[in-house]
Amino acid sequence: MNAARLPAPSVTEFDSPILALHHWLRERNYAGHEPYDLLNSPLLRKWAVHQPFATLFIQGGKRIGGVHLRQWLHVPPSHNPKALALVLSAFCDLARSGWFSRRHAEHVRNLLLELRSPHESDFCWGYDWHYVSLRGARMPAFSPNSVVTVFCAHALLDFANIYQDEESKAIAHSATNWLATRLNRSTDTDTGLCLSYTPNDHTRIFNNSALAGALFARIASDSRLPQYGSLARRIMEYLGNGQAKDGSWTYGVARSQQWIDTFHTGYNLCALLEYQQLTGDTSFSQALARGYDFYCSHFFCPDGAPRYFHNRTYPIDIHSCSQAILTLCAFAELDPDALSRAEQIARWTIQHLRNSDGSFGYQIHPHRVDRTPYIRWSQAWMLRALARLRLTIGGE
């Protein structure tokens, strides 16, 4: 794509943080560490497989030690497919707002395609760490799941749309078929449809099913495939029926999934809004309004700091910040105050969680700040959020 075809780039207060963050990512070839990657340590992997309670230590590792613990345990930096997808979508937004970034976007796209999950006929993706649970479930790195596959498919569609790349479009369609055919239908009744998180479970988690539903709506809209439109509507029915009277959603249906947090609520709202915008179906407009009202009234401090949970302030998490920016940008056409609030949150995040090297930290606690620069959880999400904010400020 010729750079001359793009509009002249605008200058915003967020340009410098975007460039610094991109430089940080590019220096590391978009690889890094994650809160959940301790089992990538060759010192821990064999031990944890035979010691289920080792997961308690491993999960605790995401809260202590940061990069230093990972260096001590020889956890290598790795490429995370979801991080690459978020970066790819960010590059596409930057191109749409006037920054020519095709060379970088193609590089990230190629990295992403190399990391597809093995042993599956359709394209799909998973996280780059090994997983062992106390209940005995074990999944090797890159085992496919719905959430990562959805974000990868969206990123490839973004790339296909802006650069007219038919291969990326075909791969996104393949990933969509994987979601529709390989995930279990954990609920499939007159109350709606809920898809599982992986092909190996029957979980009922609102956000992962809703995200798949929004992708189905996008594919149906772009390609006139009615079967995906029908799936999308039934998934949104399940999401609407699962909403509490106050407009909130718990993370999932199971007794152990009854918390309410900001970024998964943001996922639900963005998925439902995207479905409505793509299909013109306003059947869920009241659920959308209730959910957005709950979101705005429960998840933010007066200074713009996003709360992790609806009923307490700490920890303040970088993912809550990035998703809040994305959610408010998505609602900018419906709420005249949304864009200014998104800008306020971005300023607050840059002031309080940005590191001196241009990366972003992890969490703020009452008496300390964890500045670990996780690659997906922090950097990729913030690049995605700031790129979308820049695009929205420009009037896209």
UniProtKB/TrEMBL annotation:
<dbReference type="InterPro" id="IPR008930">
    <property type="entry name" value="Terpenoid_cyclase/PrenylTrfase"/>
</dbReference>
<protein>
    <recommendedName>
        <fullName>Delta-aminolevulinic acid dehydratase</fullName>
    </recommendedName>
</protein>
